Amino acid sequence: MVDPDGQRGEDSTDRWARVPAVPPSGSVATRTGAHRAPDSADDESVAAPPPRDPVGRRIVRGVGELFITAGLILLLFVVYEVYVTDYLTGRQQDELAEELREQWEQPQGEGPQLRQVEIGDAFGVLRIPRLGEDYARVILEGTNETELSKGPGHYEGTAMPGEPGNVALAGHRVGKGSPFLELDAMQPGDPIVVETADSWFVYRVLGDPATGDLAADPSGIPGRQIVRPADIDVIAPTPNQAASAPSGSYLTLTTCHPRFSAQQRLIIHARLDGGALSKAELPDGPPALFEG
Amino acid sequence: MYGWIWRHLPGGAGLKTLQALILVVAVCALLLLVVFPWVEPQLPFNDVTVD
After folding, report:
1. Please, how many CA atoms are within 13 Å of residue A228, restricted to the half-sphere of its CB?
2. Is residue A54 part of a domain?
3. Domains contained in chain A, number
4. Would you say residue A188 lies in a domain?
């Protein structure tokens, strides 16, 4: 029953060869021989069946199997990162979007809602036509992994959409729905639209739309920059100016750079274009969403 | 390792195959549902914020 594979295999093949020649006794021998006393009777007929592979070979095989296993586990992890987390985040996004819609449809009589946003709350929807016609991600308050695994997170204490200052959002580049995977494709003038309970806010990526030069914004703030992870000035009220009073209404997106790495941060800056657009007047979205 | 497992599974080839498949699925589930979600936050490419 618990004989090593090899031995049993050799036993049976030997027997099978003999069975046709001596049918009556041969079949009985097969049955009993396979099950007990392989050493006594069999050693005479079978030359010298090595009971097991040498220790060295078994160790090498074991190590090889371990390596193969490790490779398979790593592959599975890649699948998990790229597909499974996307799926999980997608489901959470759907739930959040549903929640948010219900919340927005409720009659609101208790004053300004934006002020009551707490960590983990979904409070708006981010739309970036450059990243896809139907690109829409629910944004949450807070930038801990709990929030970021569900969608782009809003840095606590930074401005809320439409306010003077800097609306700072962080999002995953790879996995978790990869909301900011293609952020390096943003061009000057590209709209970044934030939808809140009752308004649309259209931000446009800084830079010179005529030449496509992201660094050539009159304000001196680049539309795109790559910085060290510790550069918190990029989310200052006026980007790149620490402890400054806000000089306008900005929006900043941060993600990791390069892809699959955390060495640097990819930063996109945008400025509010116009003011709040009423959702009552534009139920389908501002024209900026459809200009592409 | 795999040979050892195979030898220790009871039953014939069909039954062994079935058990082996169940084992594979169980290991994958353990990895996907428990191990990876725990390992992942410790990995560097999840840092997307400036701080």
Report:
1. 2
2. no
3. 2
4. yes
A145/A37 Cα distance (integer angstroms): 62
Contact (CB<8Å) B50/A235: yes
Question: What does the block give as tokens for A210?
Answer: 């005529």
Residue of B nearest to A178 (CA): B46
Once rounded to an integer, what is the mean pLDDT over residues A257-269? 88
With beta carbons under 8 A apart, name residues in chain B contacting A85. 40
The residue segments making up the domain with residue A14 are 5-45
CB–CB contact A62 B7 (8 Å): no
Least-confidence region, from A66-70, A115-119, A226-230: A115-119
Indicate whether A112 belongs to any domain. Answer: no
Cα separations in angstroms, A63 against A60, A69, A70, A218, A287 = 5, 10, 10, 62, 62
Residue A292's SS3 state is coil
Cβ separation B48–A260 shorter than 8 A = no
CA distance B47 to chain A (A): 6
Q: Where are the domains positioned within chain B? A: 2-37
Clarify whether residues A27 and A88 are in a common domain: no
Note which residues in 58-117 of chain A have CB less than 8 A from chain B. 61-62, 65-66, 69, 73, 76-77, 80-81, 84-85
Residue of B nearest to A73 (CA): B31
Entry pTM: 0.75
**Model ipTM value:** 0.88
Whether residue A92 sits in one domain with residue A41: no
Percent of chain A with pLDDT over 70: 79
Provide mean pLDDT across the span A181-192: 92
- A192: amino acid identity, one letter: I
